[in-house]
Amino acid sequence: MVMTPFGEHLDVVKHGWHGILKAFQDVAEAMKFANNHGILHRDISYGNIVFYEQHGYLIDWGVAVVGSPEVENALTGTILFSSVKVTTKLHENKKFTHTFDDDIESLFYTFLYVACDGVLKWKKGLGGMDFVAAMKFYTVYRNFSKQLEYVKNNELLPYLHRFRDIIVSNWTDKMAIDIDAVIRVFDIK
User: Which segments constitute the Protein kinase domain (predicted)?
Assistant: First the structure.
């Protein structure tokens, strides 16, 4: 357990696009390892990923759980990065099960956030969680090219597209997300 400040938050300019891809690949590997041991982080977000000595680390396991228990209207992560399902269920005040796919979708929003230097279309939402969920879905599913105008390094674009395609096919096909496919997204070509 690390008790002193450790690492830095990700920054495209400071860490370069190779460093960003490496950090996200490391985090996806850590998520896979935890999931294989029945552990869900449930708070994948910008604030919980740090970069240290050319590696990415997933920190703050404070709301992590063993298994995938039903959640009764309790925010289990950072709303800006929560999956559309989690955000919607919270708004509807309904019980739901936080899954590994929700964590992977949160990783996608975190990657997008870092690539766009903190600019997300739903960040300045005037409405509540229903607005945030709707804007996430609209931005990723229908208006992704507009969001990508904020990307700080165009080298990240093909990686963002590949990760987006995985998330969208999870929405449309209702298939579990293949974490190995996500890990491969970050392979430097």
Answer: 1-189
Rounded CA-CA distance 142/129 in Å is 19
- In the block, tokens 């450790």 appear at 6
Residue 97, H or E segment: strand 95-97
Helix (H) or strand (E) holding 171: helix 157-173
Tens of pLDDT, residue by residue over 84-100, are 988 888 888 878 888 89
- 43-72 confidence digits (pLDDT tens): 999 999 999 999 999 999 988 888 766 666
Cα Rg, the chain, nearest whole Å: 16
Q: Is the pTM of this model over 0.85?
A: yes
Per-residue exposure over 155-181, b if at least 16 CB sit within 10 Å of its own CB, e if not: bbeebbeebbebbeebbeeeeebebee
Please state, in angstroms and rounded to a whole number, the distance separating the CA atoms of residues 111 and 106. 9
Q: Contact, 58 vs 44, CB < 8 A? A: yes
* End-to-end Cα distance, the chain: 34
Residue 54 has which token pair? 């050319």
Task: Quote the CA–CA distance of 45 and 18 in Å, as a whole number.
Answer: 20
